[in-house]
Write a structure and sequence with these properties.
It contains 18 helices and 15 strands. It has about 425 residues and is of the alpha/beta class. Helix 8 packs parallel to helix 9 and helix 8 crosses helix 14. The structure holds pyridoxal-5'-phosphate (PLP).
């Protein structure tokens, strides 16, 4: 299926040489009017607040860890400009693995691959799609989800992204999840991407929901389906409530069952506040998988990297490696996380006080960079435009009903003003 936006571009190019020579992928490709395009509008008009950005921003500048900043001038020529190895600097990979175990203690006695460096989490997901998804295949994802999943899965790979309803009124919708997984299991193969803390909702399952998710996956594996779970942990570690899962799902799925194959997608992008570094990691885990299997998977991955970006950024890997070896980085990260947590607490209190609002219902949220409103009786796009034009506040309309607000990019002192305006604008529209 060709998206209408792709159709428009194809029409613009009609009759030209490039237009007549577009490949099937070239014909399908377009630039969605999603987060990036809405973000560009907010940059122009969101004078009071630009709550579109998936970064941690303070006083209009992105936060940067001092341990990272100070390494910029310290690199040797090799660290700065030499080609990196296809799956990354071995020392960086080993240190990331060591820290994965420190952050996820359940991994300490488990056997999983050495993380491979990819040029950002987006490309990691795209490479997984190259390796494991083709026309006719289905990837399950939550609804709502990060909009780029659809562009990668449907447009790039010509496969199908099927979304299950993520929430009940109060938390993770285990019934919808189980139904979607069981339906796919009938085909013999379940592929699923799960992202926690989640974009756009800002939700992480509770400990008991996480156990239940693993059990549902093990049950279909028990009945014979091959189950592949991609854990998109982009926002790992940004948890603001005590009862939510502290470890990645990957910790439990990587040795849960012979028929379950888990992949962890993570990196310094959000965890270490290094968005533009364009480095991330893919880590593989499966109960029966041996070094021999991980080596083969690694070589497959190397093929997709070599044939696209070729390798990841050397200076970014070198700076991150130096920063990670500096014992001060942990305290700095805690300080930044506290900034986000304090914003979360303000938003939480404001939204809780409007629990029964007729037009705006906050989806469950407890972690990460974002929270999301479900709009009742108005469209999220109308609300986004009103906020932008009348209140100079940039937000994201994820689809017709969900409005995403990135509290990670709103300074503490204007949170009340921004959220008051959001409710007021919704009331004016209704
Ligand atoms: C859920 C999720 N996964 C992956 C990414 C991509 O991260 P990166 O910037 O490392 O490509 C994002 C970025 O917004 C995200 O929100």
């Amino acid at each position: 299926m060709i998206n209408p936006l792709a159709q428009e571009l194809n029409s613009s190019l009609h009759g030209t040489v490039p237009g007549e020579m577009l490949s099937d992928l070239g014909l399908r490709l377009f630039f969605p009017k999603g987060i990036i395009a809405q973000g560009a509008e907010a940059k122009k008009l969101g004078k009071l607040a630009n709550a579109t950005i998936g970064m941690a921003v303070s006083n209009e500048s992105p936060l940067i860890l001092p341990t990272i900043q100070k390494e910029f001038l310290n690199l040797t020529s090799t660290e700065a400009v030499a080609y990196a190895q296809t799956v990354g600097n071995p020392e960086f990979r080993a240190l990331w693995k060591e820290q994965l175990i420190a952050k996820n203690p359940s991994l300490s006695d488990k056997y999983f691959s050495l993380p491979a460096v990819v040029p950002g989490l987006t490309s990691g997901i795209s490479y997984l799609c190259d390796l494991f998804l083709q026309e006719g295949d289905v990837l399950l994802a939550a609804n709502p989800s990060w909009d780029n999943y659809a562009l990668i899965v449907e447009t790039r790979r010509n496969a199908s992204l099927q979304q299950f309803t993520l929430f009940t009124e109060s938390g993770f919708n285990l019934d919808a999840f189980e139904k979607a997984v069981k339906e796919q299991a009938k085909t013999g193969k379940v592929r699923i991407i799960l992202n926690f803390p989640q974009n756009p909702s800002g939700y992480t399952p509770t400990e008991s929901e996480q156990v239940a998710i693993c059990k549902i996956l093990c049950d279909v594996a028990d009945k014979g389906a091959n189950v592949m779970v991609w854990c998109d942990d982009a926002y790992f570690g940004l948890n603001y409530e005590d009862n939510i899962a502290k470890e990645s799902l990957f910790s439990f799925l990587c040795d849960a069952h012979e028929k379950i194959f888990a992949v962890k997608i993570d990196g310094p992008t959000k965890e270490d506040f290094a968005w533009g570094f364009r480095i991330g990691f893919l880590t593989f885990g499966g109960k029966d998988l041996t070094e021999h299997h991980y080596e083969a998977l690694n070589k497959k991955l190397m093929g997709t990297i070599r044939s696209s970006a070729s390798c990841s950024s050397s200076p970014a890997q070198s700076i991150m490696l130096r920063a990670m070896k500096n014992p001060e980085i942990e305290a700095e990260k805690i300080k930044f996380r506290k900034i986000l947590e304090s914003r979360y607490k303000k938003v939480r209190a404001f939204v809780d006080a409007k629990k029964d609002h007729a037009i705006l219902t906050a989806l469950p949220f407890n972690s990460g960079y974002f929270m999301c409103f479900k709009c009742n009786g108005i469209t999220s796009e109308d609300l986004r435009l009103k906020l932008l034009n009348d209140y100079e506040i940039g937000t994201i309309a994820i689809d017709d009903v969900h409005l995403r607000v990135a509290f990670s990019s709103i300074d503490d002192d204007i949170i009340t003003q921004v959220y008051s305006a959001i409710y007021k604008a919704a009331e004016e529209l209704a």
